[in-house]
Amino acid sequence: MTTAAKLSRHSPRRVFRDRREAGRVLATLLSAYRNREDVIVLGLARGGIPVAWEVAAALQAPLDAFIVRKLGAPDHEEFAVGALASGGRVVVNDDVLRGLRITPQQLRDIAEREGRELVRREAAYRAGRPPLVVTGKTVILVDDGLATGASMFAAVQALRDAEPAHIVIAVPAAPESTCREFAGLVDDMVCASMPTPFLAVGESFWDFRQVTDDEVRQLLSTPTVGATITPAAAPTAAEVIRRVAIDAPGGVPPYDTLEEIIGDARIVLIGESSHGTHEFYEARAAITKWLIENKGFCAVAAEADWPDAYRVNRYVRGVGEDRNADEALSGFERFPAWMWRNVVVRDFVDWLRARNQRCAATTGRQAGFYGLDLYSLHRSMQEVINYLDGVDSNAAARARARYACFDHASADDGQAYGFSAAFGAGPSCERQAIEQLIDMQRNALAYARRDGLLAEDELFYAQQNAQTVRNAEVYYRAMFSGRVTSWNLRDKHMAQTLEALLKHLDRHGDGARIVVWAHNSHVGDARATEVGSDGQLTLGQLVRQRYGDDSRLIGLSTFTGTVTAASEWGGNAERKVVRPALNGSIEELFHETGRDAFVVSAALNPQAADPLAVVRLGRAIGVIYLPATERQSHYFHVRPADQFDAMIHIDKTRALEPLETTSLWIAGETPETYPSGL
């Protein structure tokens, strides 16, 4: 597979393949304007014309060019001091003019020069056709992006002179501040993506070649009303996927297909587009069993807290005190407990214990169960102390003294500590967490010599708890400084834990192989998503960058059904109805194939590359599901071909059953008549 190598050569900020694709994405966001006789589309020439043509064709609206010329400063023409728009409207930045000491005569000279070019382009582009009449119309102004917004501002001011009924601006990429500014100036503002930090419009495109006059003329002469965007003979994206997809009953592909997807990879990440879908958990468990039995995988690393998962690890290896899987999973008390305390995980844990018992009888390699997450700040501190109490009482006393720094916060509330430390309401315990980690590392060799492999495992467990305390301390303080920062710290911790686990298991035998269970939002490569433009990292991206072709990323999706989720953080588990996926989403595309469950991969069949390479919306339901704000809360733009090595789609799914079901979960949610609600 070449996906990882291909992605690494691209900037992580790029979302759209080219301007034409950006236009198709915008068109899905402007679908409310489709087939309206009062709508016309104006593309800002030249770069906005390919984008605008796709929008106009999808909306079945007339297209024309709207020409805006930048007024560049003398001797620094790339620096805009204003803009000149069709109709002769001039907009200037008075502060810049004064700052650069540009005289009125210099400004007139610049405007006259650009005015001549504007007239030339209008004549060349329209080939004698009169401009569209915009009076009384809903005008959608389209460009390939906004930076300062000077050109678009000039266009809006000039357009207002023609008295349109409504003005809409649509761009693929712009700074959030610019989008907000224009939202207050026009009737509707559509920004497909808002990269942070915003460097340049071209950073959002893989292909940002300059648009030529000939391209503009050709597009303007190609009808958009009654246009067929895809030639009639060409199959639709859904037809292509239907033809190349491979049936995966219950979400489990045939084993020969799994063999082809996974090959010799050492790390396989299997995702889920919700934390509460029965079929996702079942399919993932079934695939994992095959990986353990047939591919030599020796560990499951889950998006779970390290101490709670390690209790399960002890149970499946037959060294813990728990009598059954239910007891082994009882450590998962923190919200959302159902993520791991559910019937599917319980059954998998029972299977893994029985399988390990058979291996022990034949000296085969056992498989473990581990956690990657860092929410266990206080629990991990206690586990460090518990370990040291058994091997080094003096070290245990030092650990107690250091970790006492955290006592000012609530007994098991990392957020309370983070808030008080971040805002000066309590001390920062960063130094103490680091000192304890160093102390553990310094004495590791002496501790490991005590009782062989078992002691080595327990030492590794304690060391990772100390590392978790260190990273969780930083994470909880960062929670109050920005979402991207805290997200990245969490996924970096998961990647760091995964690497440490791989090295530890390598010491127990050659070529350790690990399967990771986590949400799609962690498993997928952020560089192929909208959030990557904001600087967000993911575990999948970090694994690809570290292990390359030794890794595989597999995503799971669904179109509709039910899901176990809460309505607020810390809320009760509810059985909620999952709305049908939105137009323009990858889930909708998969639904349109008419197939119940399948796997698709551009690596398996190159014909799938084009449909999967289109930027679409992707749904992500976490532990909270808010159908009322579905688009804002649960969707972001993705490029599936580069986000995952393969995707498994199960069209209709049901809610995951918690081990403790409440009357609220049993009652479920009354399905609404979507989308009208009537």
Which structural class best describes the helix and strand composition?
A: alpha/beta
Euclidean distance between termini CA atoms = 48 Å
Average of the residue pLDDT scores: 87
The CATH homologous superfamily of the largest domain: EreA-like (biosynthetic domain)
Determine the fraction of residues in helical runs and give it as a percent range.
Answer: 40-55%
In percent, how much strand structure appears in the residues?
A: 15-25%
Reported CATH architecture of the largest domain: 3-Layer(aba) Sandwich
CATH C-level label of the largest domain:
Alpha Beta
Q: What does the overall shape look like?
A: elongated
The count of strands amounts to 18
CATH topology of the largest domain, by name, is: EreA/ChaN-like  fold
Radius of gyration: 29 Å
Largest sheet: 9 strands, mixed
Can you count the helices? 28
Q: Please tell me the total number of domains.
A: 4
Query: What ranges have pLDDT less than 50 throughout 5 or more consecutive residues?
Result: 1-12, 229-233, 673-678
Description:
The strands form three sheets. Strands 8, 9, 10, 11, 12, 13, 14, 15 and 18 form a nine-stranded mixed β-sheet that branches. A seven-stranded mixed β-sheet has the order 4-3-2-1-5-6-7, with helices on both faces. The N terminus and C terminus are likely disordered. The protein is elongated and about 90 Å long. The protein is built from 28 helices and 18 strands. The chain folds into four domains: about 200 residues, Rossmann fold, CATH 3.40.50.2020; about 210 residues, EreA-like (biosynthetic domain) (EreA/ChaN-like  fold), CATH 3.40.1660.10; about 70 residues, no CATH class; about 140 residues. With about 675 residues, the chain is α/β, with parallel strands linked by helices.
